């Protein structure tokens, strides 16, 4: 009990940090994932190859290694002194984008063939077909996997805490270093994560209900 | 829908346009790579000395030890998670309410807590001096919950007639589960189970937080202890260790694909329909350091698997 009351400000900061990094990297992952999924189904072979390489590489790298890359290599390429928050969100966003890409791609696969054929016979181009016809219809089937991907992202954001980003795992290590018993700390952190993940799944359930169509 | 449905067979104009896009796209990607390499070369990260460190016997020994440590933790976690997964899956399908509730609560709680948080708590609370066991235990608990859900989905996907026939033959509940349902469930879910093992392998890298000397920990150690030309060789070390990780994961994934193909060929098993299996694999893959598997692979005839 005490550990939360004594250090509520830090706990609140950690909670907000987790929410922030989750939100920022979700946006990055969603945008990148959709673009890369578009690459993977495009008529241009080099872009298709790029998409495949992107997904294979990112899905088979441990997230922790990706964090190392972003913390130590990326500042050398871009400019030194980027904030850990930005780097961590980028790492998390890039990693998750590969899963989003695969979810979107399999969503594209569930849209009935006739839709794309009709679009083509109306003379729509590839990008028009994808943007106006296929992706809007794929949204419905993509939502449930996206929900579990974003919940996984929330949980993965804990790793950012090991790379000096203020969030809940950081609070856990800090409190444990200060000599508080680990079990109550663990329970509070777990409760905080449960709140966030429930919020995400609730949000997605709402979205799903809004997009539902009577068949 | 195959990709080719989305666009027409290119005519002469489209072919030229596609070729232009191809050239521009490849040039953009190449330019990005070239700029990155140049920037790294400017900072001296591509100097031969930086890569020469892997010729030292000491560092090679370090890498070999770390690889062994990673594989050891992975082996323990794989066995632990599979055993726990079977136990939890059976418990969750049990006829006794308390057992079922306990298993459900255990799975739901540990599945929704970040793995890192669990590993750290296990390490501090019980196994401060045994980081390998702490890592293996944390991984087993988390991945055991995921494997349990995968197996449950598999058991529920076994045709109802199998269970009924087994009971009609007079088999006990245990016999039905162990000799009829579980073997078929394992068989149909093997690709998913293995891709969750790939996730487990990747997650062993979390051991660096609890100072377990696995690959990632020793990567940081090597990089921060070797001074070359007044710089730390983070780039070369990360490239080498990244290659090791990717090779390990690709090998395991290739095994999963091979088994999936083999399973599809056989007539005796109960292959899960293609899209269903892929959905489960996708969800399990999303795991990374903490995904929810089987969240959407719920077979039509089984109870819905809660997404949390």
UniProtKB/TrEMBL annotation, chain A:
Q: Report the superkingdom from the record.
A: Bacteria
Keywords, A to Z? Amino-acid transport, Cell membrane, Membrane, Transmembrane, Transmembrane helix, Transport
Its subcellular locations are: Cell membrane
Q: Which Gene3D superfamilies match?
A: MetI-like
For whether the record's keyword set contains Transmembrane helix, the answer is yes
UniProt-listed Pfam families: BPD_transp_1 (PF00528)
Q: Which InterPro entries match?
A: AA_ABC_transptr_permease_3TM, ArtM/GltK/GlnP/TcyL/YhdX-like, MetI-like, MetI-like_sf
Its recorded name reads Amino acid ABC transporter permease
Native source organism of the sequence:
Streptomyces roseicoloratus
């Amino acid at each position: 009990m005490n550990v939360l009351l004594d250090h509520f400000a830090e706990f609140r900061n950690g909670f907000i940090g987790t929410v922030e990094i989750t939100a920022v990297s979700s946006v990055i992952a969603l945008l990148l994932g959709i673009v890369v999924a578009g690459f993977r189904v495009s008529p241009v072979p080099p872009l298709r190859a790029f998409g495949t390489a992107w997904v294979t590489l990112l899905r088979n790298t441990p997230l922790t290694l990706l964090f190392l890359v972003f913390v130590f290599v990326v500042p050398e390429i871009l400019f030194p002194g980027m904030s850990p928050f930005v780097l961590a969100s980028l790492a998390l966003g890039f990693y998750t984008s590969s899963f989003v890409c695969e979810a979107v791609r399999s969503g594209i696969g569930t849209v009935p063939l006739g839709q794309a054929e009709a679009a083509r016979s109306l003379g729509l181009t590839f990008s028009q077909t994808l943007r106006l016809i296929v992706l809007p219809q794929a949204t419905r089937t993509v939502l449930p996997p996206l929900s579990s991907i974003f919940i996984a992202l929330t949980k993965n954001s804990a790793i950012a805490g090991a790379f000096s980003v203020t969030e809940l795992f950081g609070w856990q290590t800090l409190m444990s270093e200060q000599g508080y018993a680990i079990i109550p700390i663990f329970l509070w952190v777990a409760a905080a994560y449960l709140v966030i993940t429930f919020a995400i799944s609730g949000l997605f359930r709402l979205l799903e209900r809004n997009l539902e169509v009577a068949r | 829908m195959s990709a080719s449905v989305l666009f027409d067979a290119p005519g002469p104009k489209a072919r030229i346009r596609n070729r232009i896009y191809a050239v521009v796209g490849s040039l953009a990607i190449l330019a990005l790579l070239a700029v990155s390499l140049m920037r790294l070369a400017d900072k001296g990260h591509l100097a031969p000395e930086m890569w020469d460190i892997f010729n030292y016997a000491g560092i090679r020994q370090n890498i070999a030890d770390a690889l062994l440590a990673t594989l050891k933790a992975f082996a323990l976690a794989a066995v632990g998670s599979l055993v726990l997964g079977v136990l939890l899956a059976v418990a969750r399908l049990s006829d006794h309410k308390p057992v079922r509730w306990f298993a459900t609560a255990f799975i739901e709680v540990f599945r929704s807590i970040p793995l890192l948080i669990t590993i750290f708590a296990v390490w501090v609370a019980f196994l401060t001096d045994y980081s390998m066991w702490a890592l293996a235990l944390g991984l087993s608990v988390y991945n055991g919950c995921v494997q349990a859900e995968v197996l449950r989905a598999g058991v529920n996907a076994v045709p109802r007639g199998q269970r009924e026939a087994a009971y009609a033959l007079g088999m006990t509940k245990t016999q039905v589960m162990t000799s009829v349902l579980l073997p078929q469930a394992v068989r149909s879910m093997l690709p998913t189970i293995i891709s969750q093992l790939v996730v487990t392998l990747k997650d062993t890298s979390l051991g660096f937080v609890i100072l377990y000397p696995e690959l990632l920990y020793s990567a940081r150690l090597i990089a921060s202890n070797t001074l070359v030309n007044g710089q730390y060789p983070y780039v070369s070390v990360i490239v080498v260790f990244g290659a090791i990780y990717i090779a390990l994961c690709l090998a395991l994934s290739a095994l999963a694909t091979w088994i999936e193909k083999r399973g599809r060929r056989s007539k005796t098993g109960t292959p899960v329909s293609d899209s269903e299996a892929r959905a489960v694999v996708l969800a399990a893959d999303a795991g990374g350091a903490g995904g929810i598997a089987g969240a959407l692979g719920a077979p039509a005839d089984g109870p819905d698997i809660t997404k949390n």
